[in-house]
Amino acid sequence: MRAVLVKTFFAIALILVLLSVLGFAFEQELELFAQWIADRLGFAGLCAILLVTDTVVTPFPPDVLLIVIAKSAFAQGWPFYVGFLGLVSAWAGMQGWAVGRWLGYRPLFRRLFGEFKCENADIVKKYGLWAVLAGAVTPMPFSVTCWSAGVLGLGFWPVLAGCLFRIPRFYLNYGIIVTGVSLFNGKV
Hints:
By secondary structure, this protein is mainly α. It has one domain (2-182). The protein is built from 8 helices and no strands. The chain is globular, with a radius of gyration of 18 Å.
């Protein structure tokens, strides 16, 4: 757990530095792009993207949507939008868990991944909530964590408790994004 926390700290610091540099170098372009996305998709479109990307294993980080919120007209109502996106992400995690549970009972999947399940079942039962929590609040792939929790038979309530930590994570990352993008342009 200590290694995960250290990696998380460094990932957050790296994101802050990267966003600061990008915000300074491409502020106008970033605002135009974010507003274009917000105008074309609307908030419902952002929620749909997040629901798919946090349910299915994809390389799309949800923090991109927070940049759209920060740099578009949605910024005026950011507490609602960020919180609702966090809730959608938690819901997506629960869907990923349900998919994992469903796959865990399929004979082909059990044959393919039976050894993995046998080797990791004790770890998940012992640290299940903490594993989902780590996936919810760190840069680890959240959908992979939720699918794994489902396949390995972790219960509904521990997964839900871990998934709900996506909400404060979204608020924290939004704050980091706003601070990082604004750091060099005097709009903190």
